[in-house]
Predict the structure.
Amino acid sequence: MKAIEVHHLSKRYGAVEALKDVSFEVEKGEIFGLIGPDGAGKTTLFRILCTLLKPDGGTATVDGFDTVRQMNAIRSRVGYMPGRFSLYQDLTVEENLRFFATLFGTTVEEGYESVRAIYSQIERFKDRRAGALSGGMKQKLALSCALIHQPSVLVLDEPTTGVDPVSRKELWEMLTSLRERGLTIIASTPYLDEVRCCERVAFLDHGEIRGIGTPGEILTTFADIFNPAGLSPLTSRQKSEENVIEVEHLVKAFGAFHAVDDISFSVRRGEIFGFLGANGAGKTTAMHMLTGLNQPTSGKGRVAGFDISTEYEQIKRHIGYMSQRFSLYEDLTVSENIRLFAGIYGMKDEEIRRKTDEMLAQLRFSDHKNDLVRSLPLGWKQKLAFSVSIFHEPEVVFLDEPTGGVDPATRRQFWELIREATKRGITVFVTTHYMDEAEYCDRISIMVDGRISAIGTPDELKERFHLPDMDSVFTYLARQATRSSD
Amino acid sequence: MTIKYLLQKEFLQIIRNPFLPKLIIVFPIMIMCVIPWVMNMEVKNIVVRVVDQDHSSYSQQLVHRLEASRYFRFAGCSATYEEALSEIRRGHTDVALLIPSGYHRDLQRGEHPQLFIAANAVNGTKGAMGNAYLTSIVSEDPANPLPSLQQKASTLVLYNKHQDYKLFMVPALLALVMLLMTGFLPTLNIVGEKEAGTIEQINVTPVSKGAFILAKLIPYWLIAFFVATVCLLLAKALYGLSSVGSVAWIYLLAMLLALFVSSFGLTISNFSSNMQQAVFVMWFFIVFLMLLSGLFTPVRSMPMWAYATTYINPMHYFIDAIRTVYIRGGGFREIYPHLIALSLLGSTMSLCAVTTYRKNE
């Protein structure tokens, strides 16, 4: 008997065919990856396996039980971790775990052995509210909650989106140790290094399985999608020695906690500056001070020639910003969003109209001018949000994790846009958790525990730490963090 | 002229909302169609019992007059006073009237015999009104006026000549609809942008705080204008009521109230971190604004400390002024203190909404 058997599964939502004749099998104790772009049908498939949705056609069995007729048997055998954290933000760590244990008719004590390896890492914070945990810790807690009833199959729907590389590695180390205990794991992920941790993967696209095989086979067969050729190095760019961002001894304290603890750096005009750090290292707080959303506790900073403590409203005239959370109005159309933000920056109607057409033509997006932003795929929203943030030709654009959760091909297109922007003389200040993107930056800083622990070009950093790639450099530095990643 | 773009955005968002436009239209209509029928302080259908120990033709007439009255429901006669009292105790009767034996005879002799009324005053108003109505019926004997009970003063009813409660309520309902519509919608607005994350994008732009808040207030003025129109038209169509004074004053008052209430809503929204919190805080204040305004109960009968709060309660000025205009036909001379007070409160609150909106923390 296989752990999961899926035969000719199909599911429609109105006119949209989410799954078309999907069949595959997963062996007991296997780590099976499900990969594919947004809207491929991954979440639908997971929800059917977890008996949360009924298929329109075909059958699926989990642990030998049918997902339609034997729901209850499956529910006690499956642990499900949905993409967005399923925790109760207002309950403490321990209360969350206790609650999920009770849901499955078991107790924390009974299931403790099975979660000990993971839960012991966060147990010292058991009285903290789940909402106050960092991304990596939330993920560990969510995993503990999904495992507390000792399931035999674990379903993970993009468990690591928005989580830093170190925490991601830790999660996959845990998953590997779980498999050794005989647990079957089926997971989806947009990260290639995680795909390689699976034994077999299925590539799902537009509701159809395009291929099943080892990660190596699938990633080679569909290399154009998963492994697009890296961007060629930028050469013909005039480097300027002028600093557009200058920061000295910047501190932001929340009570006794120093989120940003005395950082100093500068960014040159026209540069792509990568601002890296683990979840909770203080990147977003630092960025908020530079963009005038937050006041520094002490220290000095100038952006585009204006002081961040006193002239923050002038700074806002000269910068663009794309926040971590999606930043366009979902209930406005593409052109209405452009018009709104351009209007706020004081552009004239005529100019807005002309530039909108130009920009959409360049993005090859003119047909969707009057579509509601809500209806666009995530990758498009992000490209659009970026284009809107540089529409008024700012001197610097700040991008806070602009490519979270999108597939490699779309990320590559996004970075082409970033390069286009630098050609126009716009300085790019970007945070990311993707280390392949870090390699595209001119210079990088890595933040650990609120301080900058390394700064330089990617090559300089690799050389300094004698490590082969940025991923290793980052992991090396981030593991030195002492503060409890919050 | 960034305000133009901001306004466009606000209107598009309200129109595209799958729920708000329906609410804005249906809510005032529902209130105006239903509430005037049920919100009625007139006391009717008081259940009355008579203990007739007189058994005269006069006492018979009295009973007939009770039966004919639209205020009373005659529940029958009881043999004894105790029996009538026990009916009251069981809640079957509101008022008992005792006609002592020899009442008619004593009356004819020119003596001053007394009737006895026992009223259940759990609902104070109902008890008192029952008592008053009954007294007036007893004394209203055209053939045989009771000298002792004859009215000593004559009353001239001013303004609401037919003492129609609906005429009293319609302006109050308009106030109520305005309070709820222009209060809750803005409360949900900014905090909604916080939840969606779009506020952060706005905060890093050079948009001025004043323009941003003004663009949020203007749609609510229009909604207030619309709501007021719907209420006035429905009052005319359904109840044949129309304003005695100029409608222009009513609109001006509505705009001023909307300025206060929506600024207040935005202020709460500025302080809230999620919608639940915002709505409950707003609800808390709305209840106070409403019940301390004289909407349902006269403010002068409130204790002094409660009455003192009405000086800063815009609802109180609004209710008082709109009733002055709508029922009494007052104009600028009668309502200018209200207009001044509302303008002051409204502009203070809108300043508050602008200053508490933080683009930088």
